[in-house]
């Protein structure tokens, strides 16, 4: 990735020691930069966690875990970790800098590798991984992106960000950490990982190096995960026939769906790879080796050169030692007998050769006709139409039979699986069953309304459906954490009281948050705090007169929009202005009884002197507050009386 001037990290001095020079790569959790260690005067790679993750304790813990895991390893095939620390709000990790490319880059450039190249890379990765497994560390994220190929030829494993202790094999809600294309079946189905999960990922990587492609592809990650959990990884030679059978067997061993059938750790697989390496390279050498060439001397006498039998390297006879007398004539009878004996001996050899060739021809015919050579590898037919699959099998000399199978990942009408499975070897003329997808399996959902959220989720997942969207709303009639209603994600059909559905589909839930708290009678600040605890906002609204609520306190609260109330919604607070003012009537000159009734009927309280108890009639002389003024309802009016 090229540097960008906008990156504020370029040129920054971290922890007073590491001068950032340029950006190397960026991932989901951190960015890696090239930096200079000013203290030791060397280039290093510094990984800096993204700022928005700094407050996430889980990410920070995983970041520190990478440092601790990698720092425990000291091996030529593992990227060295030099330092780890915190500079202001940045968590960083200092590593060995390896100029070069990743295995992913190599595969993009070359497509696939030779058997020898694959074994060289695999041996280096297994060596480093064996050291990790011996130290009690499982990598859990092996993939070509994490295999570094240095310019000087070194091969190293990096990125121990998901590493865990070997015996820490329980799921913690993060079961599918890692890259989906390399996840082992036990990680997909149970969220459990150990050293054998790394072996599975290496097996998939080996397949990819040999063939240039991954064994499983799909439009959605769930489709790929389903294949890892339920299918057998095909042999690489089904894609590239020239791949040696020994490497086929190594890939099959490493990618066995049952972890018990895989190598128990990287050391066991490394030992086996070294044996395979010797066999494969020896076989390759035998096929390409030059046959020895014998060069005969040009100085051989013509008599020797013409003879039927030549003895090479024999010491030539000196012509000076030959007798001077002329040679005697050969014995014709002996000569004929010798030729007959030679013809007879030649006849035996020819007969033996013919019999050997006949035996070889017969053996070859048996091998390819009814022996092991007649076996045919079942091709990968998943997601093909039955017609296309039948045509492929017929061309290979195999028969077909149709079956059915429910599938949540393969569309109805296409081949969901075969029996025997892909890469299995069967005799010519054998029958392969094509199981055609019927779509997702129908299921019946029970009553969901009234269940707790956890109970409803468990019920749905046990039926092999999934929980889709969860909408949480306030409902005073339903306890918090209880399902109010449920609906099918596909068509919004109500399944609150149960109903028909399909395996693998999503069920949407509406869950109660309980009732909105009653804030009447609280101060504005108090009401705002109560609503905030429930995830609701408050704003000051209308002010009204209230005889029951003191001035400045909340009379009531109401949602500012119609419909169900959700977290984050705003409530308008109606605030009391106190009791409504009432005009004091004119009761001056009125008899005491009439004045009392007039004021009491308006809600006023009365205060008067002892003169009112006199035995003679009394009339109102004055009022306080005076007549015609306003006073709060319920306030006290003082009356002054005088004899009539």
From TrEMBL:
<feature type="domain" description="PASTA">
    <location>
        <begin position="371"/>
        <end position="438"/>
    </location>
</feature>
<feature type="domain" description="PASTA">
    <location>
        <begin position="578"/>
        <end position="642"/>
    </location>
</feature>
<keyword id="KW-0067">ATP-binding</keyword>
<dbReference type="GO" id="GO:0004674">
    <property type="term" value="F:protein serine/threonine kinase activity"/>
</dbReference>
<dbReference type="GO" id="GO:0005524">
    <property type="term" value="F:ATP binding"/>
</dbReference>
<dbReference type="Pfam" id="PF00069">
    <property type="entry name" value="Pkinase"/>
</dbReference>
<keyword id="KW-0812">Transmembrane</keyword>
<feature type="domain" description="PASTA">
    <location>
        <begin position="510"/>
        <end position="577"/>
    </location>
</feature>
<keyword id="KW-1133">Transmembrane helix</keyword>
<feature type="region of interest" description="Disordered">
    <location>
        <begin position="623"/>
        <end position="644"/>
    </location>
</feature>
<feature type="domain" description="Protein kinase">
    <location>
        <begin position="18"/>
        <end position="280"/>
    </location>
</feature>
<keyword id="KW-0418">Kinase</keyword>
<feature type="transmembrane region" description="Helical">
    <location>
        <begin position="348"/>
        <end position="369"/>
    </location>
</feature>
<dbReference type="InterPro" id="IPR000719">
    <property type="entry name" value="Prot_kinase_dom"/>
</dbReference>
<dbReference type="Pfam" id="PF03793">
    <property type="entry name" value="PASTA"/>
</dbReference>
<keyword id="KW-0547">Nucleotide-binding</keyword>
<dbReference type="GO" id="GO:0045717">
    <property type="term" value="P:negative regulation of fatty acid biosynthetic process"/>
</dbReference>
<keyword id="KW-0472">Membrane</keyword>
<keyword id="KW-0723">Serine/threonine-protein kinase</keyword>
<protein>
    <recommendedName>
        <fullName>non-specific serine/threonine protein kinase</fullName>
        <ecNumber>2.7.11.1</ecNumber>
    </recommendedName>
</protein>
<dbReference type="InterPro" id="IPR005543">
    <property type="entry name" value="PASTA_dom"/>
</dbReference>
<dbReference type="InterPro" id="IPR011009">
    <property type="entry name" value="Kinase-like_dom_sf"/>
</dbReference>
<dbReference type="InterPro" id="IPR008271">
    <property type="entry name" value="Ser/Thr_kinase_AS"/>
</dbReference>
<keyword id="KW-0808">Transferase</keyword>
């Amino acid at each position: 990735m090229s540097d960008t001037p906008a990156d504020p990290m370029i040129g920054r001095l971290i922890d007073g020691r590491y001068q950032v020079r340029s950006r190397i790569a960026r991932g989901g959790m951190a960015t890696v930069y090239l930096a200079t260690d000013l203290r030791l005067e060397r280039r290093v790679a510094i990984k800096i966690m993204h700022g928005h993750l700094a407050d996430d304790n889980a990410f920070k813990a995983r970041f520190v875990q990478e440092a601790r895991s990698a720092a425990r390893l000291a091996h030529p095939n593992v990227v060295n970790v030099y330092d780890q620390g915190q500079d202001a709000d940045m968590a960083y990790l200092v590593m060995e800098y390896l100029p070069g490319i990743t295995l992913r880059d190599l595969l993009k450039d070359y497509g696939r590798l030779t058997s020898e190249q694959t074994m060289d890379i695999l041996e280096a990765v297994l060596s480093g991984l064996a050291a990790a497994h011996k130290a009690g560390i499982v990598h859990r994220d092996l993939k070509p992106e994490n295999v570094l190929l240095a310019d000087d030829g070194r091969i190293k494993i990096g990125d121990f960000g998901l590493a865990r202790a070997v015996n820490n094999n329980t799921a913690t809600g993060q079961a599918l950490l890692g890259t989906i294309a390399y996840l082992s079946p036990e990680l997909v189905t149970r969220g459990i990982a150990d050293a054998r999960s790394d072996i599975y990922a290496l097996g998939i990587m080996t397949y990819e190096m040999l063939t240039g492609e991954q064994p499983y592809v799909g439009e959605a990650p769930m489709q790929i995960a389903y294949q890892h959990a339920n299918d057998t990884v095909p042999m690489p030679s089904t894609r590239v026939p020239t791949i040696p059978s020994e490497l086929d067997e190594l890939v099959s061993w490493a990618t066995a769906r049952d972890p018990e059938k895989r190598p128990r750790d990287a050391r066991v697989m490394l030992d086996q790879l070294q044996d395979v390496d010797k066999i494969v390279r020896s076989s390759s050498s035998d096929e390409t080796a030059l046959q020895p060439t014998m060069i005969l001397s040009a100085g051989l006498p013509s008599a020797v050169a013409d003879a039927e039998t030549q003895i090479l390297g024999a010491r030539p006879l000196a012509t000076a030692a030959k007798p001077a007398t002329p040679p005697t004539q050969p014995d014709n009878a002996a000569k004929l007998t010798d030729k007959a004996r030679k013809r007879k001996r030649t006849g035996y050899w020819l007969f033996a050769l013919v019999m050997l060739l006949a035996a070889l021809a017969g053996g070859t015919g048996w091998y390819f006709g009814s022996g092991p050579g007649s076996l045919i590898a079942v091709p990968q037919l998943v997601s093909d139409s039955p017609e296309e699959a039948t045509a492929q099998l017929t061309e290979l000399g195999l028969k077909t039979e149709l079956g059915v199978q429910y599938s949540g990942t393969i569309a109805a009408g296409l081949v969901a699986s075969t029996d025997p499975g892909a890469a299995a070897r069967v005799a010519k003329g054998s029958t392969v069953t094509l199981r055609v997808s019927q779509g997702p399996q129908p299921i019946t959902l029970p009553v969901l309304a009234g269940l707790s959220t956890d109970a409803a989720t468990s019920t749905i997942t046990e039926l092999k459906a999934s929980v889709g969207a969860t909408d949480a709303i306030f409902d005073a009639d339903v306890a918090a954490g209880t399902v109010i209603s449920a609906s099918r994600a596909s068509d919004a059909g109500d399944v609150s009281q149960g109903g028909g559905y399909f395996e693998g589909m999503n069920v949407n839930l509406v869950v109660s948050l309980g009732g909105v708290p009653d804030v009447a009678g609280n101060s504005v600040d108090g009401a705002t705090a109560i609503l905030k605890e429930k995830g609701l906002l408050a704003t000051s609204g209308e002010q009204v007169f209230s005889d029951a609520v003191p001035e400045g306190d909340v009379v009531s609260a109401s949602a500012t929009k119609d419909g169900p109330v959700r977290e984050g919604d705003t409530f308008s607070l109606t605030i009391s202005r106190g009791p409504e003012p009432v005009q004091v009537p004119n009761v001056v000159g009125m008899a005491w009884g009439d004045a009392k009734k007039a004021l009491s009927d308006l809600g006023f309280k009365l205060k008067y002197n002892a003169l009112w108890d006199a035995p003679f009639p009394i009339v109102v002389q004055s009022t306080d507050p005076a007549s015609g003024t306003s006073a709060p309802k319920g306030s006290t009016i003082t009356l002054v009386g005088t004899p009539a």
